[in-house]
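quick q for whoever's on today - can somebody do inverse folding on this one?? i tried earlier but teh output was garbage lol. tokens:
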């Protein structure tokens, strides 16, 4: 995922860092495993974009933040990666120490709104 002009987030399916290192070959890079650092939250449902808009200064409407787009931005006081995987589904990555904080913030904004799932 391209998060910015000089930042990529690789979410490989395989647990083989050597294969990824080989694939990058001579390309200048810094490959650091941070899989244990993050926790993943998935917010899905027709109100997902509006719920996130209550927590982050980004515009999550589909014409501005289309499917496939990803970026790093604050989710309240926590740094988060937002990735729209479907019209009504967002994949979020936050540091593990902010996982419950992020979940509680989402639930607070979503209070009274029915959404399909919030999974950690």
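ok took a stab at it. sequence:
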């Amino acid at each position: 995922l391209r998060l910015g002009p000089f930042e990529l987030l690789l979410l490989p399916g395989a647990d083989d860092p050597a294969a990824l290192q080989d694939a990058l070959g001579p390309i200048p890079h810094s490959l650091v495993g941070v899989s244990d650092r993050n926790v993943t939250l998935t917010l899905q449902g027709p109100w997902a974009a509006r719920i996130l808009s209550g927590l982050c200064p980004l515009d999550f409407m589909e014409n501005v933040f289309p499917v496939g787009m990803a970026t790093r931005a604050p989710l309240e006081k926590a740094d988060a990666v937002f990735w729209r995987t479907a019209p009504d589904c967002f994949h979020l990555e936050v540091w593990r120490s902010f996982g419950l904080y992020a979940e509680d913030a989402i639930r607070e904004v979503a209070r009274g709104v029915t959404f399909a799932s919030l999974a950690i």
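fwiw Residues 99-110 form the longest helix (12 residues). also The CA atoms of residues 45 and 88 lie 5 Å apart. so keep that in mind when u check it
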